[in-house]
């Protein structure tokens, strides 16, 4: 556990330092909007559940570190969660997010025999089948869930990119209980004048660069210490 905490501290320190030195963080919606994504997140709510997913570069530069926290869960329920192909529609209806992200057709090839093997996720799991290779959410006595996972498969850009997609938390009957888009952040110095940059950047994102990154870093540390 200490090794994990030290790794997360190093990641958090890097994000804080970079943002403090260079300038503000800017939201980007798509994986091809910029190549220098430094973090991503998704904040979900629905059916009494609130959850936060944060994605940071892994300490060894392979894949991403996923930091998850959730509340409002039923202690006796297992909650699958996945990355879905489509973004959440404007009406917030989670059914509009489509199926699980599977750019390499793993499930299509397996058909009825599909079974995600957590020991071989790259060859047996849909890219978005997070619960398949990380396990379902299960609540503590007070209805909370917190975890951090190293994920060697997911990336911010390229064929395994998570940006431009969404996260959905399901109930045991596969009902879609909560969903949100995955939003990436780049340092403003590397974003340039990209036309894919989100147009609705509020002033707090531009002027509160250090506070945004520091808040994210503190959330990472808190999640690590809590485990």
TrEMBL record:
UniProt cross-references to InterPro entries, sorted A to Z: Cu-only_SOD, SOD-like_Cu/Zn_dom_sf, SOD_Cu_Zn_dom
EC category name: oxidoreductase
The organism's place on the tree of life at top rank: Eukaryota
Entry's EC annotation: 1.15.1.1
Domain Superoxide dismutase copper/zinc binding: 59-175
GO molecular function (one): superoxide dismutase activity
Keyword Oxidoreductase in record: yes
Name this protein carries in UniProt: Superoxide dismutase
Native source organism of the sequence: Coemansia erecta
Gene transcribed to yield this protein: SOD4
